[in-house]
Write a structure and sequence with these properties.
The protein is an alpha/beta fold and 355 residues long. The chain folds into two domains: 131 residues, no CATH class; 211 residues, Vaccinia Virus protein VP39 (Rossmann fold, 3-Layer(aba) Sandwich). The protein is built from 15 helices and eleven strands. Strand 5, helix 11 and strand 6 form a beta-alpha-beta unit. The radius of gyration is 24 Å and the shape is elongated. The chain starts with a helix and ends with a strand. The relative contact order is 0.09.
Length: 355
C-alpha cells in the first residue's frame, strides 16, 4: 500500500488539515525518517520519531509501532515548552495530545501509560514543534472555548480571549433588564460575542458584520454548529446596513444594543511583535496611530443606528478608558461607564443614547 492508499484509511478532514511537512511524510512510500526538529533536538535521528515503515508482505502492510508511552511524550513536550517560556506548558502539551488521540481529560489520565502508535507520535511531535515555533495553540487545535461554546478559529480570525467575556456578561444584563431585542455585533470575527449572546438569550434578533469574507465564513460555520440564527453581513462597520444596501429607500435598521471588539492597538505598538498576536490578522488588531481610529468611527456613526435608550458597548485597550469615555460623552451618550477585566484593567466601556 502506498502513502496515498494509507491515508485513504483516515478521514479526509483529518489528513488534509495536517501540517504540510507531516502530510509529505505520510504520503511518501517505503521507509523515511521524519524531521522533528526542536522536539528531539536531533533532526532525522531515530529518537526523533518515524512515519511507520510500510514493509511489503503477503496480503498485509506492517506498520512499526512506537514504544513510547503517552505520559513520556507529554512530559517531554512539557519540558521543551517550559524551556521556551510557555507559562501553560502542561496544559498545552495535554491539549495537543488530546487533539491527536481524541481523548478527553479523564481518558488521557487513565490511558497515559499506553503506547502511542507511530503515526500519532509523529503527528504529536509535529504539533508540539509548531507550538515551539510560536503558532498559537488555538490555531493548531483549530478551536477555542469561549463562554459556553467551542468555536472554530483560523488565521483569518482573532482568537477569542477570556477578557471579552466581561462584555458578554454586561450585555446579557442589559438584554434581560432593558428588554434589548435587536442586537448588532460589529467586527464579529469568529462570531464569539454575538453567538454567546444568542446562545444565552435566544429571544434576541441578532445581526453581525465583518469586513473579511473568510472570517465571516468561520462565524457562519460556528453559528451552524449550534443552530443559532444570526443575520450575517459582509462589509465595513455600518456600511452593510445602509439604506441602499437594504433595498428599501430610507430604511435603516435600528438596534437596542450594539456591541463590538474592534481593532484598538496602535500601529507601532511593540506588543505586535510578541506572543500570539504575531500570527493574528493585523487588520483586526491595528487602528491608526493611537489605536482609536475605528472606535471613533463606531462611536460617531452608532447614534444613527440606535433606538432611543439604546446602548453602545465595546472592548478597548487597557490604557484607553479615559479617552473612550470622553468620546462617548462628546457625542452625547449618557450613563457612560467602564468595566474592568479579570486582570483589573479597564477593558469595556458603554454608554446610553437617550434620544
Amino acid at each position: 500500500m502506498d502513502g496515498e492508499g494509507f491515508l485513504c484509511l483516515w478521514p479526509r478532514s483529518w489528513w488534509q488539515n495536517l501540517d504540510p511537512t507531516v502530510s509529505r511524510c505520510l504520503l511518501s512510500e517505503g521507509s523515511r525518517e521524519f524531521p522533528i526538529g526542536a522536539f528531539s533536538g536531533r533532526e532525522g535521528s531515530d529518537s526523533a520519531g518515524r512515519c511507520g515503515r510500510h514493509r511489503a508482505g503477503v496480503g498485509a502492510t506492517v506498520v512499526e509501532e512506537s514504544k513510547v508511552q503517552i505520559r513520556a511524550l507529554v512530559n517531554q513536550a512539557v519540558v521543551l515548552l517550559r524551556e521556551q517560556g510557555f507559562e501553560s506548558a502542561r496544559l498545552e502539551a495535554e491539549l495537543l495530545m488530546m487533539h491527536v488521540t481524541k481523548f478527553n481529560k479523564v481518558q488521557l489520565l487513565t490511558h497515559d501509560l499506553e503506547e502511542l502508535p507511530a503515526l500519532d507520535e509523529t503527528v504529536y511531535k509535529a504539533l508540539v514543534d509548531q507550538r515551539l515555533q510560536g503558532t498559537p495553540i488555538a490555531y493548531i487545535l483549530g478551536e477555542r472555548d469561549f463562554w459556553d461554546l467551542t468555536l472554530k478559529v483560523t488565521p483569518d480570525t482573532l482568537i477569542p480571549r477570556p477578557d471579552t467575556e466581561i462584555l458578554v456578561e454586561k450585555a446579557l444584563t442589559l438584554i434581560q433588564c432593558n428588554h434589548c431585542r435587536d442586537v448588532l455585533d460589529l467586527g464579529t470575527g469568529t462570531g464569539a460575542i454575538i453567538l454567546a449572546l444568542k446562545h444565552s438569550a435566544p429571544e434576541i434578533r441578532a445581526t453581525a458584520v465583518d469586513l473579511s469574507p473568510n472570517a465571516l465564513a468561520v462565524a457562519m460555520e460556528n453559528a451552524q454548529r449550534y443552530h443559532l440564527d444570526v443575520d450575517f453581513r459582509c462589509g465595513s462597520w455600518f456600511t452593510p446596513l445602509l439604506p441602499e444596501r437594504e433595498g428599501a429607500k430610507g430604511f435603516k435598521p435600528q438596534f437596542d444594543l450594539i456591541v463590538s471588539n474592534p481593532p484598538y492597538i496602535e500601529e507601532y505598538d511593540p506588543h505586535l511583535q510578541e506572543g500570539d498576536v504575531r500570527f493574528e490578522p493585523l487588520s483586526a488588531l491595528v487602528s491608526g496611530h493611537d489605536g482609536l481610529k475605528d472606535i471613533r468611527l463606531i462611536v460617531h456613526e452608532s447614534r444613527a443606528f440606535l433606538r432611543p435608550n439604546g446602548y453602545l458597548m465595546f472592548e478597548h485597550g487597557y490604557n484607553q478608558g479615559a479617552a473612550v469615555r470622553q468620546l462617548l460623552e462628546e457625542v452625547g451618550f449618557a450613563q457612560v461607564e467602564t468595566l474592568r477585566d479579570y486582570g483589573q484593567n479597564e477593558r469595556v466601556t458603554l454608554g446610553r443614547a437617550l434620544s
